[in-house]
Amino acid sequence: MFQRVIFAKDQPFPSEKGAETHIIHGEAAKRGQFPYQAAIYMDRKSFCGGSLIGITWILTAAHCAVKVKAFTVYLGALEIKLPDEPGRIVQESTVAYPHEEYNAQSLNNDVALVELPEAIRPNGKCFL
Known about the structure:
Blueprint: E1 37-42, E2 46-54, E3 57-60, E4 71-75, E5 89-93, E6 95-98, E7 112-115
Antiparallel strand pairs: 1-2, 1-4, 2-3, 3-7, 4-5, 6-7
């Protein structure tokens, strides 16, 4: 059974410096294991995850897209901090569609789409 963790509104979220960098008792993903997983940097300062759901569409949370001007989307990446990782695709987008009934207080309808400027053609394993 999973335990749901809820952060109080005034409780600070763990910063990158002091935060654990791995899932507890988790294992590192292998290349191609999760080919549709996306890493998204918003306005080059915040980070969210997403999923490739079509050749030009990333599904993410609305709280990751509201008031954001630019998205840097990484696909096929295992080590996001390595500049020349093989198999990685990076695209910049300025187009997002948060759910029109998204509520920031309740987080109802916390879903959004980010449109990629170029089609992604996955080969079934990686994005090579």
